[in-house]
Amino acid sequence: MGNKEKVCSVLEREKDWMSIVQVAEKSGLSRQTASKYLWILTADGKAEIRKFAQAQTFRVKESDA
Q1: InterPro entries annotated for this entry (predicted)?
Q2: 5 compared with 55, residue with greater pLDDT
Q3: What are phi and psi of 17, to 5 degrees?
Q4: CA angle in degrees (0–180, nearest 5) for 10-54-34
Q5: Bridge-partner residues for 57, per DSSP?
Q6: What is the pLDDT of residue 52?
Q7: 6-15, 16-25, 48-57: lowest mean pLDDT where?
Q8: Cβ neighbours of 7 (radius 10 Å)
Q9: Is the dihedral of CA 30, 10, 51, 61 positive or negative?
Q10: Cα–Cα nearest to 8, from 30, 23, 28
Q11: How confident is the model at residue 65 (pLDDT cuts 50, 70, 90)?
Q12: pTM for this one?
């Protein structure tokens, strides 16, 4: 499983807003690597971001069912 898939798997499993550090810990990746793939998934439309102040949290994007 590649790094992108690891990050996506964590987001799909947790279903709640998660920080970069939380995703990194649960995926076994470094914070920098988790951040890179979170931003890629966001750009691909597979994850969404919520920003407040200096913090960002991410979650899997819910389908438009």
Answers
A1: WH_DNA-bd_sf
A2: 5
A3: -65, 135
A4: 25
A5: 19, 50
A6: 83
A7: 48-57
A8: 27
A9: positive
A10: 23
A11: very low
A12: 0.86
